[in-house]
Amino acid sequence: MSTERSPFGSRPVRAGVIGVGAMGENHARVYSELRDVDLVGVADRQTELAERVADEYGTTRLSMDELLERCDAVTVAVPTHAHYEVVTSCLAAGVHVLVEKPIAETIEEGRTMAKRADDAGLVLQVGHIERFNPAVRTVHELIDDLDVISLEAERLGPPTDRSALGNVVFDLMVHDVDIVGSVLEEEPAPITAMGADDGRYATATMGYGDVVATLTASRVTQKKVRKLTVTARECLLEVDYLEQSVLIHRDSYPEYLVDDGQRRYRHESVVERPRVDNGEPLRHELESFVEAVRTGSTPEVTAEDGIDALETVQRIDAIVSDEAPPRERTGEREREVEA
């Protein structure tokens, strides 16, 4: 991919954030900390919020049009129903975009956004942040050498004030749908799913060839859990997203020992802890985005990846909601919900 704004030479990439709620503010914070990035401004319909965030991170509150005139790249962290309008405006202005998940409200909108970015030679990256969790990156390094049987993901947590604003399939499970798809590099079929407590708890089981993946998401569990378990013939991998840790469990061979003249049986497991280069996933994500913008390379999480994840969560949500599978719409949602 080539970009109209490349090469940048030695000057910093001029970045901005559109939508400075909880996630957007964090993007502003990280941009303000990155080397070779100039946070030129933030935009939000809530002007007082935008002014506070701008003051906090040493930048300026601007209108969206003003921001697009000054930026090379922006994060779009507005409500999902506004993704299409805002992202297409950014692309029309010649600005590279990182859009928060899910990519769009409909598959058709996502595909149109992807085509416009491609036609314009611009980067369109989707904010599936767990791809940049150091523990997940370690799993990607290990998985090719394993004969995988199953994956089990748990993304659980207690109720929050924001939890009523979106269901767990689109807000939480979408992360693990993306991770499992990227690890196995296949589309799921078949899919079964069940939900409870008005969409605040859901579980889905998906087939990826000979591999079974079970995903559970909850906003009614009184403990925050973010885990992935990979069962392979050679070992068991336990991944903790919060601790950014990976444990490898291997079964040792049984043996008989002679102790004080008595023969005893022993069978122990071997636990390995591979090195994980810990760091903030959002920082890794934005560094990757800026690098793609600067070099004109393909982003690590493409628009096509975002569309694939959206298609899968639509299928899961249709089953959970006991509706006919919608091919295009995800349903109305008011805001992005924190992962």
UniProtKB/TrEMBL annotation:
InterPro entries assigned to the protein according to its UniProt record, in alphabetical order: Gfo/Idh/MocA-like_OxRdtase_N, Gfo/Idh/MocA_Oxidoreductases, NAD(P)-bd_dom_sf
The residue ranges of the Gfo/Idh/MocA-like oxidoreductase N-terminal domain are 14-128
Where is this chain compositionally biased, Basic and acidic residues type? 324-339
TM ranges are: none
* Gene Ontology molecular function terms on file: nucleotide binding
Which residues lie within the region annotated Disordered? 320-339
Q: What's the domain of life for this entry?
A: Archaea
Q: What Pfam families does this protein's entry cite?
A: GFO_IDH_MocA (PF01408)
Q: What is this protein called?
A: Gfo/Idh/MocA family oxidoreductase
